[in-house]
Every structure is written in C-alpha cells, then in structure tokens.
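Support request, please re-run this one:
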Amino acid sequence: MEKALSFFREKQLDSFKKYTDLSSNYSKQPKSLEKVHFFLATYYKYSKKPDSAYYHYHQSKNISLQLGDSITTGKRLYNIALLLLNENNILASEIAYISALKNLEKTNFHTIKYYIYNNLGLIAKEREELQEALKYFDLSLQELKKDSIKNYNLRLNTFNNKGLLYQHFNQHQKAITYFMQGLNKDSIEQKYPTQYALLLENLTYSNYSLGNKEKVLEQYNEVLSIRKKLHNYSGMSTTHINLSNYFKDLNLTKKALFHSNEALKYAKQTHNNKRWLEALKNLANLTKGEESKQYLFEYITLNDSLFQNERRLKNQFAKIRYETDKKEKENVVLKTENQQKQAEITYQKQQKTIGWLVALSGLLFSGFSVLFYFQRKRKILYQAQLQKVEAREHERQQIAKSLHDEVAGDLRLLHQKLEKSNLLEEAVKLNSVKENVRNLSHQLSSISFDKVSFKDQIINLVSDYFELDFKIKVYGIQDYDWTTIDNSIKRLLYLSTRESIQNCKKYAKASTITIYFSVHKKYVHLNITDNGVGFNTEVSKKGIGLQNLQERVEELNGTLTITSEIGKGTQTHIQIPFHV
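Re-run finished. Output below.
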C-alpha cells in the first residue's frame, strides 16, 4: 500500500494503479479494503473516469459506515458530492454534501466544511436563491475563522463568490463592495496573485456594467499579464472574452476579433467549454457570410455535444448507483443467511439447557398460535389486496401497449391514406385523435423499480421538471430503505408526485413545490406543498387525474387529503399503510 502511495505522490498514475490492484488481492481487513477503494477512486478521478471513481468512493464509504467510522464516511460523501457537482448533477450533489455535513459536524475538519458550505452556496446560486447562497457563504467563512491554519486565499475566494453572486443578480454596486473587500487586503497582489487577478477582473466587469469605463482596458490588460506569468490559460480565455466584448461595444471589430480568436485558442487548450462556446458565438457575430456560418455551426455542434455528454454521464451515474445498490442487496442477503445459520447453532445449544421450560412454552405457544392465526389472516387479506393492485397495473400496461402499438398504428396508416386521397382536413382531425390515443397510452403506462431504484426514479423525475422559475425541493427520500416498501406503494408515491408536479405547472402557476417523504410507525406519508394560486375545495371538482389518484390510494387502504385556499397554494397529504 505504501509503495502505491509513493507512486501517487510522484504522479506515476499507472504504477499507482498497478500496486493498488495488487494490494486489493491481499487486503482482507475492512480498513485496508476501504483504503484500496479510496486509492482506486482517486486514480479514476485523475484519469477522468468519474463513473468508476464514484463506484469506488461509494464502496469506501459503505465500509466506513460498517466500521462506524463517521469521519471517513463524511470525507467520502464529500468526495462523492464534489464528483457529482463537477458533472452538473446538482440535486444529487446537494444531498451528498448535506449527508457529509451530518458526519463531520462535530469534527475539526474546518477546511473540508468550508468547501462544503462554499459549494452549497454555489448550488443555491444556480437555483437563483440569493439569501440561501449568502447564508452558506457566511457559514464557510465561519469555518475558516475556527481553523488554526489561516487559509487566506480561501477567504479571498469567498469574497469573490459573494461578489459574483450579486453580479449574477445584476446588483453590481453590492458586488463591487465584496471585490474591493478582497482587493484591499495587504499585499494581495504579491502574496495571492491568482486571487488578485480574479477579483480585479470581476471588479472591472461590474464597473463597466455600471458605465464606469475608466481604466477598464488598463485593468483587463493587467489581469491578462498576471495570468500569462502564472500560465493560467483557462483564466486567460475569460479575460480575452471580456476584452473582445469591450472592443465589440466600441465597434472596434478588428481588435474584438483578435481577442475572440485568442479566447478560442486558450479555451480549446484548457477544455474550458463555457468560454469555448462564448468565443464561437462572438466570432459568429463579428464575421460575415460563410465564415460566420462556420463559427455558428461549430457553436451548435459543440453545444449539442456537451448536452449529450451531460446526459450520458447522468445515465452512467444512474447505472452505477443501480449496480451498487444491487450488490449491496446481495451482500445483505448473504449476511442474513449467515446470521440465520449462527442463530440455528445457538438455538440447538440452548435446547439442551432449557428442557424444563417445555411445558410452559407449550401453553404460551397455544396462545400465540391463536394470535398468529388472526394476524396471519389480516396479512393474507392485505397481500391479496396488493396482488389485486399489481394485477390491475399489469392490465393497464397491456391496455397501454395495445393502444400504442395497435390502435395508434392503425390510425397512422389511415392518416397516411387520407393524406394521399387529399382529404387533408380529415387527416388533420385523425392525426389529433392519434396523438390523443398515444397520450392516453403513456398515461396508462406503469413504472418499474427493478432496474432503477425508487430514490433514483424520484431524483430523475424532479430533474426532468426542475427549471429556474419552477423550483422543486425534496426531503426524506434519502432517509429510508425503500427496498423494504412494496412496489405497489412506491408506484403510487411516484405517480402521486408526478401528478402533483404536472398540476402545479399546468394549473397552479406555482414557482416552488416542496415534496416530503416520511415513514412513521406503520405508514408511509407523502406531503406535497406548492405556492400556487390555490382553489376553493368546496366549489372546484376533482379532475380525472385526481379522481384516478383517489381510487389508487383507496385501493391500498390509504387516505388522500387536499387542502387549499385561493391565493395561498395547495397542500396534498397521502398516507398509506405498508404492512399489517
């Protein structure tokens, strides 16, 4: 293990991987195996293979949990969160960061906690939550004050992040106060040139946005000179973009073109995709004819490629999470079987010494048998109800398949014949019927939790609907082992969540929806609250979607409660028994 670590320090990653793999073959102690997974995760992280890195971080975290090592567990959750954030998986990253804080809350790892709070602030900024972001940035500064090591460069980063936050909301005057707060520190230019260049550039941008154009060119050139000395080529691409925009505003096209080309060169060199896109967009606007079309084509191609790559990585992470959860379930089964064997051995030994309790046990057994009979009867009735629901879901699935594959297909052929016969008006009407049939088939379609877990299904559902002006907050989804809950109940919870989100977007005009899952005693609870326009529950009738939801809830012996007032939003509460 030490030899592998020495290769890592020397940045010889291939040798590091080789000796780490060798260590894994001889590591039988959990603590050693945890380190092996951590080293492999580190290797894949630096090898730009985030899905493999995620898997090994996850394995390392699970072993630490089994060992009761909350500190290492917190560190690994932090690694996982950072990995997810880098791949733009915002919601999953936020959940991992919060879980890491729970494990590290009482420790002295102030620097790690600084990064957690700082990144939570950046996530809040992405969600357009100004006050939430400020709260997290202030907490990050509090952690630095507690640290015996004065990481002043991190304080400067936080001043810059606060400034960028206000800059993001076009509050440039407030942004300037934070940039100046960092720049006014003693000898910052000599001690922390990277942070100095960053603060100066952002200060210049805010001043320029307010119309203060004095020294703009001088300051941008100063930033460019510092970054050139530091070989900070990614930062240079940003500065060239700013210079290009400056000269474009002055109608100095030749200079604007020069800096756009420089920005493009350094963005490509450092894979700074954001600046790469900005440079191509500027060049498309600054040039004409075929040259402009070529830059525009490159912009569209790169943008589409980045989007597809993001979706691919998201699917990879979902697959890794599914495979990891599956392996964990298999380990739980093996552990349970082993415990059962040990219990059987213990039971046999005990039987030799407790023979005198047989008579009393017989009497007790008779009483318990009666109790068991009635309990068993209730359970059988409940299981029969669940099977009935599953059968109905299967029937819906068959109907949906028939509508999609047969009815919609026949309508499509008839539509084509009408078009060929120049019966265009009838063809349009028939096409509308066909789309209605397809929509109906999708509504009837069921959902499976065999390949993608309930947690990931909910996370993917929220991610699909989440928008800057429609925020969805989810709580409780990570707090329970959903594999113990029947699929019929999980399906109902999923469909209820989807129906509520769709209603909020379509009818409620809500900007925020809060979803809270909880398991209490013998019930699963789902509470959904929105800040929409609301409605009068005594006057308004339930639509077909809510009527179907009511029937699904009652099938599982549950209750559905909807409370709402005009102008005060809507609250939906569902309670389902998960066993009897």
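The beta strands are 471-475, 512-520, 523-530, 559-564, 570-577. Residues 246 and 252 are 9 Å apart (CA to CA).
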